[in-house]
Amino acid sequence: MPARDFILANTKLLPVPLVPEIALYLAEESLPIWQKTEEELQASNIPPPYWAFAWAGGQALARYILDHAALVAGCRVLDLGSGSGLAAIAAAKGRAAAVTAAEIDAFAIAAIALNAEANGVNVTTTAFDLLAEAEVAAEVLLVGDLFYERALAERTLAYCELARAQHAQVLVGDPQRSYFPRHRFERLAEYAVPVTRELEDAEIKRTAVWRLT
């Protein structure tokens, strides 16, 4: 089944709890879409449907961007590991000059396109693994909830440091996942983010927006 059709058949366009100005194609329950992804798409080696949920880090980051749009206005913005495209869409609504959402999951790429269309904004997508690149083509780098696995966290931090060395501002939304390097960041804001117990350990997740120092 084509990615676009799969997304439309298994999600619903819903407002994001912390960012109701933005609506996304989201799964109303986590288990059914997880099972369908495994059963129907296993042969294609499709990753888990992370794109079907508004994760705490992405919600906090999007909220912060909409409330501080001057940070992205007129800038080239890159949303790394974009998932649903939530932070990228917030940046586009904040009048960024150009927004790129990076995702290596083809289904996430399709979800980002659908979500951008639903919100009336223009977001460019790329499926390249940018963590292997030696240059960050952006003035603002956004990272939502990518510090949940050690290897990924290490590569993500290295890319963030590369971006900072190239004079980009680095903003991260993270509820201090297991591998989040707290000592490398300063806290800008904190939110009580509504999430689901099917995916998290609480219905409200204390989540901060951080800036790489």
Largest sheet: 7 strands, mixed
Please state roughly what percent of the residues sit in beta strands, choosing from under 5%, 5-15%, 15-25%, 25-35%, 35-45% or over 45%: 15-25%
C-alpha geometry: globular
Distance from first to last alpha carbon: 44 Å
SS summary, helix count = 6
CATH topology annotation: Rossmann fold
- Low-confidence segments, given as residue ranges, are none
Give the % helix: 25-40%
Based on CA atoms alone, the radius of gyration comes out at 16 Å
Mean pLDDT: 94
Task: Give the SSE order as H and E letters.
Answer: HEEHHEHEHEEHEEE
Number of strands: 9
User: Which CATH C-level class is it?
Assistant: Alpha Beta
Strand order of the largest sheet: 5-4-3-6-7-9-8
Write up what this structure looks like.
The chain is of the alpha/beta class and 213 residues long. It has one domain (3-212): Rossmann fold. The chain has six helices and nine strands. Helix 3 runs parallel beside helix 4. The longest helix is centred in the last third of the chain and has 16 residues, at 150-165. It is globular. The N and C termini lie far apart (44 Å).
